[in-house]
Amino acid sequence: MAQQFDRAVVWGGSQDDNATRIIQDASGNFYVLGSYSGNSDFPMGQLQGYGFQDVYVIKLTEDGSAEWQIGIGGAGTDQASSIAFDENGDILVAGRFQGSIDLDPGTGQSLLNSNPSGALDGFIARYSATNGALLQQFDITSGGTIDIKSMQSAENGDIYIAGQFAQTVDFDFGSGTRQAISNVNSGDAFVGRYTSDLDLIWVNPIGSMTPAIDYFSDVKISPDGGVYVTGLIGGLADIDPGAGQTNLNGAIDAVLIRYDRADGSLDWGFLLGGNSVDLGVSLMLTEEMDIIVTGSMNSSSLDADPGPGVVNINKTGSVATPFVLRYSSSATYINGFAYDASNVSSLNVNRMIPSYGGTIIVLGNFTGSFDVNPGTGTETIQSQGGSTDAFFIQYEPDWSPSRKVQISGAGAENLNDAIVSGIYLYGVAQFENQCFPQSGSSEVVSAVGDGLDAAFMVWNTNPEVLENTPAHNRQLLLYPNPAENFVIISGCTPQEEVVITDITGRTIHPAMTGNKADVSNLANGVYTIHVLRTDGVLSTSKLLIQNK
């Protein structure tokens, strides 16, 4: 089936700007997080630069119109890694700064100073979803350094953060004390759970016993009570925060760990590595509550099976090769692959996102040519003009590709993050000069600045799905999925009956407003949506309720 580029919004200045993360609220609005350098032109006017690199958030409606934009920063290098909603629908922003940062985007000033002075340190701040005003800032500096690489919030307001720390850090950001010292003063990994006001519930500092680099790059919470992290373990490390000991003997290897959401105790964990540097990059939770990890392997081979069996994932080519591996919640290997990197000079997977019908979208960038089909077929894409192109590929659960889009141009392109809402993919990207958002089409998106520009781009990934299609052939598209309080059933008309069943077979008749179903009374778990078509045919689709 075809893909159809729909629209783009671009912002930038004379230096480099980037859009790195995107989230969507219940009303369909988007919040884009990124960085900018110097004075940059945004949709609602120029944002003034504070220093070398600063942080912005912009709120966009579904059609790309801007409602507000804010910039925060200081004289040094400031970076934002994560954005999430709190329990009231306002937004949390996490990142790191150097020296000092003014977290108030308004006329006031709310300074946070790193400790020790001039060091890189972490920040978390809360902003109004209505107008972007600063609501609350948290001082998480304590003498060492904290680099928050990933953050996720639960519907009850709890905040989960993961990343890296160095030297002595007090992880209790309230009135108590929970000190941790990185092993032999190297960078160590951590994951922690906090209340909405950042009171500590539990934290797990994890570090190698010899000088080595350790960090967690991503965290995901699961409705079945798990907290997953991936990243890198550089040496021999005990990943069990309790009285027991579970040592993983890493040699700069990727890692996948599951902790208990309630108390942070270890459920399981294992390494993914071989004879060179391998690292975990991103996680995705499926409708079946499987966990998918993507990363980068420099080793010639790695064993993907954490059990007694052996499943070798082999590297091809001379550059780092992305891998994508799927596991059950009990750490059973299901399937996976590594891309063929024989004909690329670079190939990176940035994120994985869930899409409709249980499909998975992988997005990233590459230079050269590679086969997007990990199976027996061949579907090759080639970067244009010798530069770096971006891509997103939609895969079926067996990793057969169903759709692919290549974003090309004379300069460098990168697709950093995206959300699938209905049949549309809303992505955030970086490019220079001009780009072709769908290779092979005549559509062109032009930069507004002289450096690398940031962009919000929209594609219709399945434009035929609701056009001239008989009722019984219309695919059910659920969004958001996973859902919390509501789900929109695209491909369903008001005249068709909607029923939800849980895993026990219990039947729920949701309150409907058009094709919007109220699921606020459903507990976390996997459900099935049933739609009785006007021609008597029954259509079904899986729905995941989480973050409650």
Mean pLDDT: 89
Largest sheet: 7 strands, antiparallel
> What's the tally of helices?
0
**Shape estimate:** globular
What is the C-alpha radius of gyration, as a whole number of Å? 23 Å
Please report the distance between the alpha carbons of the first and last residues.
Answer: 36 Å
Strand content: over 45%
Helix content: under 10%
Uncertain segments are: 465-474
Can you give keywords for this protein?
548 residues, mainly beta, seven-stranded antiparallel sheet, six-stranded antiparallel sheet, 0% helix, 54% strand
Question: What do these coordinates show?
Answer:
The protein is mostly beta strands. Helices cover 0% and strands 54% of the residues. The strands form 13 sheets. Strands 32, 33, 34, 35, 36, 39 and 40 form a seven-stranded antiparallel β-sheet that branches. It has a six-stranded antiparallel β-sheet with strand order 5-4-1-41-38-37, with no helix packed on it. The radius of gyration is 23 Å and the shape is globular. The model is unreliable at 465-474 (pLDDT under 50).
